[in-house]
């Protein structure tokens, strides 16, 4: 097993030979960059003498755990992509860490970043997950980096939901290509919380096949300059924004016209000289309704009676003349 230790650094021609004239302990104190990529390293030993270390390159190795880095309080860049790491831990002392590269590992849950308040870039693409597994995010970690994170790369991780990421309001570059994002409404809601977003890549997701996919995202992400590798023309954006506003205004007008009209009260009249049917102007009363029905029936019978004496003379019952029910 290859282990990264002080002795391994001493044997490296790429390091100590560049600092001739210094003792080895003095050299370790001045060391700011440590390059040990592609060395079949499986473990990190005691490197506490490298107290001024700021950049550590350990990509393309066989490391399974992040450990023994608590001494590196000045570390700003950590490159550990393409290893065999399964958990993100032991990073709480790296409070100056700005860029963290962990792509190509075996991480299933993104966690353990609660103390990294200066983290600006997080790269987690291409995790080698078990079949059916997807990359998940601990909400506490998302909240802890929400004020600082500007770059997030989660390509190819079977992700189908990013609603919890809405808190990352400082994001400027977001890459989630080759995942399983499919809900346009959810994406629009999340992206509306990212006012700083400049560059986004969602290519290879099912949502890209939706009608007006590109147009919708351009209108939601008003600061976006590049979408799926294609630049956004400002004239095109303004046209789409105006078109969307016009469409929404028409919807409001149509909705207003489709509102149900108020019902007209059904009033009853006992004025028999003007009409045989109810009309407005009279207050409904059950007694009036009965009176109207009786008068309507009586008049109908009277009009059918035979004439007597002179032509066209129709006798009118006294009940109608007196205004009382027959």
UniProtKB/TrEMBL annotation:
Q: Report keywords, A-Z.
A: Leucine-rich repeat, Repeat
Keyword Nucleotidyltransferase, does the record have it?
Answer: no
Q: Which domain of life is it from?
A: Eukaryota
Q: Does the keyword Ribosomal protein apply?
A: no
Q: Name one Pfam family in it.
A: LRR_8
SUPFAM superfamilies per UniProt: L domain-like (SSF52058)
Name of this chain's protein = Protein phosphatase 1 regulatory subunit 42
Q: Whose protein is this, by species?
A: Anabas testudineus
Q: What gene is it encoded by?
A: PPP1R42
């Amino acid at each position: 097993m290859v282990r990264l230790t002080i002795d391994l650094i001493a044997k490296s021609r790429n390091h100590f030979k560049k600092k001739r004239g210094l003792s080895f302990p003095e050299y370790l104190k001045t060391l700011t960059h440590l390059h040990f990529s592609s060395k079949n390293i499986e473990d990190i030993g005691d490197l506490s003498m490298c107290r001024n270390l700021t950049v550590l390159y350990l990509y393309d190795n066989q490391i399974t755990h992040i450990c023994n880095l608590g001494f590196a309080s000045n570390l700003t860049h950590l490159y550990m992509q393409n290893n065999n790491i399964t958990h993100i831990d032991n990073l709480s002392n790296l409070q100056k860490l700005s860029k963290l590269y962990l792509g190509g590992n075996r991480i299933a849950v993104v966690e353990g970043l609660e103390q990294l308040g200066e983290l600006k870039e997080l790269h987690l693409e291409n995790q080698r997950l078990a079949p059916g597994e997807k990359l998940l995010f601990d909400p506490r970690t998302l909240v802890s980096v929400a004020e600082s994170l500007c770059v997030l790369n989660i390509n190819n991780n079977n992700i189908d939901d990013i609603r919890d990421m809405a808190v990352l309001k400082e994001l400027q570059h977001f890459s989630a290509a080759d995942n399983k994002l499919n809900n346009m409404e959810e994406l629009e809601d999340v992206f509306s919380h990212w006012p700083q977003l400049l560059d986004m890549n969602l290519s290879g997701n099912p949502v890209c096949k939706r009608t007006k996919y590109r147009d919708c995202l351009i209108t939601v992400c008003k600061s976006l300059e590049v979408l799926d590798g294609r630049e956004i023309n400002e004239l095109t954006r303004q046209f789409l924004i105006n078109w969307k506003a016009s469409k929404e205004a028409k919807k409001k007008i149509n909705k207003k016209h489709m509102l149900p009209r108020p019902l007209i009260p059904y009033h009853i009249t006992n004025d028999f000289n003007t009409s045989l049917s109810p009309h407005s102007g009279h207050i409904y009363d059950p007694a009036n309704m009965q009176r109207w029905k009786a008068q309507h029936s009586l008049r109908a019978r009277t009009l059918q009676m035979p004439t007597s004496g002179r032509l066209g003379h129709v006798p009118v019952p006294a009940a109608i003349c007196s205004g009382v029910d027959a």
